[in-house]
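Pair request: fold both.
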Amino acid sequence: MKVILVAPLRKKARDSNVIKKNIFNVPPVGLLNVAAITPEDVEIEIVDENVVHIDYQKKTDLVGISVMSASANRAYEIADKFRGLGIPVVLGGTHPSLMFDEAIEHADSIVVGEAEGIWERLLEDFKREGKSGLKKKYENSSKPELKAVPFPRYQIARQSGKYLFTNLLNITRGCPHNCSFCSVTRLLGRKLRLRPINDVVEHIQELMTREDGKKPTLKDRFFIFVDDNIMANKKYAKELFRALIPLKILWVSQTSINSAYDDELLDLAAESGCKGVFVGLESISDESLREIGKQQNKIEFYREGIKKFHKRGIFVEGAFIFGFDNDGTDVFEKTVEFVNEMKLDGVQYTILTPLPGTDFYDKIEKENRFIDRDWTKYDTVHTVFAPKNMNPEQLQRGLYWAYKKTYSLGGILRRTSAALWEKKRWKFFLLLVAFNLGYRRSFKYMFKIAALPKEVANLSEGSLLPYSVRPPSLE
């Protein structure tokens, strides 16, 4: 029996004949997790449409597709094509889990929530009775404990040769917070589930062991922990970091700015090899933070927190969201100024997006503020609802303007040059600049494939004046 697992592009089918090489492509961890729980007598092939084309003529018994909201339309096209060839299709991931009635129109079965414990049951049903044995819905009644969950099958990604980094793993699942724009707690719960630390250490050692017997290279020693908040449970995080110190690895992950309140935690993180963190700062407005239920973020601590990370040689990529009810057209200029002042090493900007399963989605639905139901636009780059204090075009242009200013060559140097004067970061200055140049290339490509109106995507640097000087307009 053979199963093909597909990670679809966000673009539509007519555009998928062009695959752009992206240095930031990483393997689809969710599908590697599914592969890990698949019985050994089932042959698995993973097709990541971001790096390879789908061969619809390849023989397979079953197709599984992982779906996010932004890729839903493309996933449905793929599913419909396979089903048209007589091959049954299973959909899973965040979007089908939260939009079952819509997704089941394009599938023979839906995996709702986490796959562990139900994917195996689905395969047994299929082996026994074929397509007719598949239930419409497979759903866990409880959250799987991570001590019983195998690590992803990294060898599949490594053998493909398509990814720069393949050492990605979840150490925890869940998030204690409940931000209104995020569906993590709806799917994974607010209780933080933790892998046994000994298992994590043994697995990392295994991943670093080379078949040729040579010492691990820098690439072998580099890990991305794809947790929503690696330091959410401080006691566990401290024990984990102590256990990682002897391994001499380098790692990056996501955490909260509030981790910086604990000096011991940051000391241990740095000593264990932490070189970078992705931090959801979200906004420089207290009112906006209250709007999304993220009052734990204190803007007055941002500067000190970032300095604490920097002092220990840890780079910080800050994430900001535009489009809150409190945001006017001056938010873009103010945020870019703040980013430069904070000397953030990397920056991600997104448009507030009402994703299914979130409180924000319910709010926009109730207030009748949706202006676009095309799932391909739910990629945090497009405006799909009516903002309160600007028009949709202003929000769209503002996002592009902020990226252009932040990742201009001058903007990059303004932010990164501070690393040259810091004892624990100057050695990585050239790597930091290279990262920013890579991000500059990626954001340009991101807007290109987003198919924004030419008036937005082709704006020259000179036309992108601060909004306090000239309000944006597409008219």
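--- second member of the pair ---
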Amino acid sequence: MLEFLEISVLGLASGSVYILIALAFVLVYKATNVFNFATGEMMMAGTYFFYMFDVQLGLGWLLALPLALVSAALLAVVIERLATRPLLGRPPVVLIMVTFGVSSIMRGLAQLIWGPDARMMPEILPRQPFFLGDMLIPGRLVWSALIVAVIATGFIAYYRFSRAGTAIRASSADQVTAESVGIDIRGVFRLAWIFAGIFAAMAGIVTASVNGVTPQMGSIAMNVLAVVMLAGMTSVGGVVVAGLIVGWLEFVVGWYLGSSWQSFVPYLLVLVVMMVKPNGLFGEQRVERI
């Protein structure tokens, strides 16, 4: 029983990083109806920005972190402005293929600039473990979960109570009506991409502090598709619950059944849930008028 509890706590903590990546997916889709398959590469780019400012330029992590987040936000704005905005209104498959193309370009540029080998990040998270009774929890995992909790809680409060959050929700419900009442739709699109870039970069920095950064680290985002689908493509709050569920399930299944089951079972859960609730656990049903 103690082993199961310890594995469960570890799974919930590891799933917390999925929350930030899933927020990056959901925010862009909710505001713009674009499913951004370049989210993983945005995460990778933000992590390399942090590595460049901290290690290569020697600025120290206290200065490197805000610079990396600003750089990631600017990169997201460039992608939105140059790659997706000119194609808004086109069939969804066109936008999906464009984001695939952007991800390939970013991955190739990262290999040209930093090379294919893993770069180890400076230790910014304490390694000192925490003890919950007889359970030992790695310090980095605890601190990463706390960081995600603070960011997610702050953003959900901002999203729910601020004017910008209201604008994003209005744009998601009906862009034409939102624009008719004075909401700057293009500004909403830009803001959603900025938040997505920041969340992806933070997720990458937290992940790379343990595993290092490579041009291929964006593939982690593909594991988060289970979180996005389970929560529902439009649920900001739902990804918090879904991220914890998927993280817990992956860790428990991997521990008891082996790694070959680890990535399979979450999608099996998604399949079962979507057979009952096609819009996910928390997703809203969208009505298309023709």
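Observation on the second member. The chain has one domain: 15-219.
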